[in-house]
Design brief:
The protein is built from 14 helices and five strands. With 372 residues, the protein is of the alpha/beta class. Belongs to the 'GDSL' lipolytic enzyme family.
């Protein structure tokens, strides 16, 4: 019996070899696990903020409109033809949009995913997420025009995201991300061009100056709610020279298809009021670090001096005739220009990737100085 008991624990050379190999595999697994963990720590420490979180309209929408019932979509060719892989994502551009460039500059991923895109999960959204919807505005009436996501609903999606992130990384880490993340807000153009100047309802209620004040009040309300949800680093982007969009120049027949100066004047006035709002909120909300980013001047300079930036065409867009087409009118059957880098605008309402890149490069040093 003792001999049999002893023999039952004798290892054959083959068995010993298998156990050694298993031991080596275990050590290798531990080694690679540590390497991955270290790389994650390095990536986290080299990023200036833990996440980029985006609210707004088509200027920053990464594809949320793809999954809602609206005619305002861009998830088809030739949109996205210069994006990685040449695929349309729902961005209203031939390539990337400003939040993508900003995210990369802050040490995060080069493209921010849309929250409603089912191919992404909370692990992807942890370092950057977009809630924006093309066609929306501060005014709920603006989002109703083309049945897109209103700004209040974007905030509801953000609350849902907060719950998912807490479940994913824990309350403490999630709260740190919420307070240290950079929030980008970009909207307002649709409130004027898609709503106020197109339909009579708001014009019968407000003068244009009163409507500007109405929108500023809505911006105040949204920002305050975002603050109470933990947001502390917020960049509020003003509206561009909206009278210079190809669509507006096309309809400006009496002005010989130059920029519609009435709309540009409103843009400048509205931006001034938004800048004043930012100053007020910083005084009123303890710990708020908020910045007004004015894209008007840089954008207008590009339009007036295109050659200085390598552009050849500012009055017409790259897609189709370049005068009025956007969304489904800019489609795979449209004739798009061979080189979008020569055009300031991709469709009649939205800039090319090159324009987005130049404007982003002007903003990034300001954002880094304030929020890193």
């Amino acid at each position: 019996m003792p001999i049999l008991f002893q023999d039952s624990f004798i290892r054959s050379p083959k068995t010993l070899k298998n156990h050694r190999e298993m031991g080596y595999m275990h050590v290798l697994c531990l080694f690679f696990t540590q390497i991955i963990y270290i790389l994650m720590l390095v990536a986290e420490t080299t990023a200036y903020v833990p996440a980029i979180i985006v609210f707004g309209d088509s200027s920053v929408d990464a594809g949320n409109n793809n999954v809602i019932s609206t005619v305002l979509k861009s998830n088809f060719k030739p949109y996205g033809r210069d994006f990685e892989g040449g695929r349309p994502t729902g961005r209203f551009c031939n390539g990337r949009i400003p939040p993508d460039f900003i995210s990369e500059a802050f040490g995060l991923k080069p493209a921010i995913p849309a929250y409603l895109d089912s191919q992404y999960s909370i692990s992807d959204f942890a370092t950057g997420v977009c809630f924006a919807s093309a066609g929306t505005g501060y005014d709920n009436a603006t989002s109703n025009v083309l049945n897109v996501i209103p700004l209040w609903k974007e905030l509801e999606y953000y609350k849902d995201y907060q719950n998912k992130l807490r479940a994913y990384v824990g309350d403490e880490k999630a709260n740190e991300i919420f307070s240290e993340a950079l929030y980008l807000m970009s909207l307002g153009t649709n409130d004027f061009l898609e709503n106020y100047y197109t339909f009579p309802t708001r014009r019968s209620q407000f003068t244009v100056r009163q409507y500007e004040d109405f929108l500023v009040g809505l911006a105040r309300d949204f920002t305050t709610k975002l603050y109470h949800l933990g947001g502390r680093k917020i960049s509020l982007t003003g509206v561009p020279p909206m009278g210079c969009l190809p669509l507006e120049r096309t309809t400006n027949i009496m002005g010989q298809h130059d920029c519609t100066q009435e709309y540009n004047k409103v843009a400048v006035e509205f931006n001034g009021k938004l800048e004043g709002l930012v100053s007020e909120l910083k005084r009123e909300l303890p710990g708020l670090r908020m910045l007004f980013t004015n894209v008007y001047d840089d954008f207008y300079q590009i339009i007036r001096s295109p050659a200085a930036y390598g552009f050849q065409e500012t009055g017409m867009a790259c897609c189709a005739t370049g005068t009025f087409e956007m969304s489904y009118l800019c489609n795979e059957y449209s004739v798009a220009c061979p080189d979008a880098n020569k055009y300031v605008f991709w469709d009649a309402f939205h800039p090319t990737e090159r324009t987005n890149q130049i404007i982003s490069q002007q903003l990034i040093p300001i954002l880094l100085a304030e929020f890193q």
